[in-house]
Design goal:
Elements: E1 7-9, E2 17-19, H1 29-39, E3 47-49, H2 55-67, E4 70-74, E5 79-83, E6 96-100, H3 105-117, E7 122-126, H4 137-145, E8 149-152, E9 161-164, E10 171-175, H5 181-190, E11 198-202, H6 208-220, E12 225-228, E13 233-236, H7 253-266, E14 268-273, H8 291-297, E15 301-305, E16 308-313, E17 323-325, H9 333-339, E18 347-350, H10 362-372, E19 376-379, E20 383-387, H11 390-396, E21 402-404, H12 410-420, E22 432-435, H13 447-456, H14 464-469
Parallel strand pairs: 2-14, 6-7, 10-11, 17-18, 21-22
Antiparallel strand pairs: 1-22, 3-5, 4-5, 7-9, 8-9, 11-13, 12-13, 14-16, 15-16, 18-20, 19-20
Helix pairs in contact: 1-2, 1-3, 1-6, 2-3, 3-5, 4-5, 5-6, 7-12, 9-12
Length: about 475
């Protein structure tokens, strides 16, 4: 795959897409990192399948190797096997092992908990400057309460940190994971390694889907975890995780949001196997599958089947604006916000204040980019209101494409790339350019190849019934 240019003009799709099935989604980043963690805690090695190989997951793999575990990967087959356990790590006294987490918030929080749960070693965790601004305090304080020695090397509650491993004692602990559910997930994953049962009291509400994902995975690996929603208390028993009980990783539901949205922009239809949901969201472990309901509210036709989800949309229909609370599946809010200029009416997105502390301030960043496209945007701490102005967007891009600043955030690049496939001027010429498209390597290295494949493929007849009628 040739390297991406520094700036990538998006060529609009001049005809509707039709693809069944679309099978180019990577494995889930959230599941890959959780399963890597669980495999590193298991008594025996197992093999994970459909693993995501991206910047974030490679940082996690590299760190596990530096900690002393064996990581055997086959990127072509998308498989990984981990040998060794965190509890068996042995490092020479006084030796400091640096662990670099880049911009990977999941890796930063999970590895902090891992190092604290290990029985020996001195670990120094650090990341890029943006990562040093992402909150860690709730996790650090909870680990200290369980006996960990965690020393901040900079501002309290943020990276970099130095951890002197001596294991974790069990007992009662309170955690404030309101700023990021990853902090609670990190604590949950290592809790069975403590000397006795761990009783976790939540100090603030957390976004449930990712915590639910973590607990469901723990149970599939033999963990014993009970959550009392009434009291906000979670009990994790002192047991050992068992041999690989979760071999195949689901397709990434957040990545799916871009391609499920594409028919709303270009017209046509797409079916993505492996992205499924029922009314209780229990078909998949990933909560971001709830984005499908948002698409349905716009007026797009959604066909939910056991083998996958199909989205159909006629170019001639007016798609409705949506009011939606994205608190529990906030990684997908940018997908909707980016196409809001094409919806009929004011789109209202709320429940997103916590995304101001992710790779960038996603609320402010989205407001800036849409405003530069001539859209009317009202921004509050927790919400965006976007009122389309398609004529102004056409006028602003008449002479040259507008460059979308991605802020080194992969989700900006992918969301606005979908908007860019809209044939705004009716003649197929690019009107939107993505700055630093290579930032997609964080979670979806082949995103632009996957998007282009939909343009290059021959038009396929999806509805065989319609084919027979013709």
């Amino acid at each position: 795959m040739p390297p991406l240019p520094a700036q990538l003009p998006i060529t609009p799709f001049i005809s509707p897409i039709h693809r069944e099935p679309f099978d180019k989604l990577p494995g889930s980043k959230s599941l890959t990192n959780r399963c890597l963690a669980l495999e590193a805690l298991c008594e025996q090695p197992g093999t994970l399948k459909n693993v995501l190989f991206s910047e974030d997951t490679r940082l996690m793999m590299t760190a596990l190797e530096k900690m002393g575990l064996g990581v055997i990967s086959n990127e072509k087959e998308k498989n990984i096997t981990i040998h060794g356990r965190i509890s068996d790590i042995s490092k020479p006294p006084g030796e400091v092992t640096p662990l670099h987490v880049g911009l990977a918030g999941t890796a930063a929080r999970f590895l902090t908990a891992f190092c604290a749960a290990a029985r020996s070693g001195i670990w120094r965790l650090d990341g890029l400057p943006q990562m040093r601004r992402r909150p860690m305090r709730g996790l650090i304080e909870a680990l200290r309460a369980l006996g960990a020695t965690v020393r901040n090397l900079g501002e309290e509650g943020f990276l970099p940190v130095e951890i002197h491993s001596c294991g974790l004692r069990g007992g009662e602990v309170t955690i404030d994971a309101g700023e990021s559910s990853q902090m609670l997930s990190a604590l949950l994953l290592v809790a069975p390694e403590a000397d006795s049962d761990v009783h976790i009291q939540l100090a603030s509400p957390v976004r449930q889907p990712f915590v639910e994902m973590t607990m469901r995975l723990m149970k599939q690996y033999g963990g014993l975890v009970d959550y009392d929603e009434t009291t906000g208390k979670i009990t994790v028993r002192h047991v050992s995780y068992k041999l690989n009980a979760f071999p195949h990783i689901e397709p990434d539901a957040t990545a799916a949001s871009y391609f499920l949205t594409l028919p709303l922009v270009t017209g046509g239809s797409i079916r993505i196997p492996g992205i499924v949901m029922d009314e209780n969201y229990r078909n998949m472990l990933q909560g971001d599958v709830r984005y499908i309901n948002v698409l349905e509210k716009t007026g797009a036709q959604i066909i939910k089947k056991t083998e996958g989800t199909m989205v159909k949309c006629d170019r001639s229909i007016k798609l409705r604006a949506v009011t939606e609370n994205f608190n529990e599946f906030s990684d997908t809010f940018l997908t909707l916000a980016a196409i809001a200029p094409l919806l009929d009416g004011t789109t209202r997105i709320h429940g997103i204040a916590h995304t101001r502390k992710q790779e960038t301030d996603r609320v402010a960043g989205m407001a800036r980019e849409l405003t530069r496209l001539g859209q009317r945007v009202h921004e509050t701490e927790d919400a965006l209101e976007i009122t389309p102005d398609p004529e102004k967007m056409r006028a602003l891009t008449q002479d040259a494409p507008i460059v979308i600043e991605t802020h080194d955030d992969h989700r900006f690049a992918m969301s606005f790339a979908i908007l860019g496939t809209h044939d705004l001027h009716g003649d197929g010429r690019p009107w939107l350019t993505i700055d630093n498209p290579a930032c997609c390597a964080k979670t979806f290295p082949h995103f632009f190849d996957a998007l282009e494949s939909l343009r290059a493929c021959p038009i396929e007849k999806i509805n065989q019934g319609d084919q027979k009628k013709s």
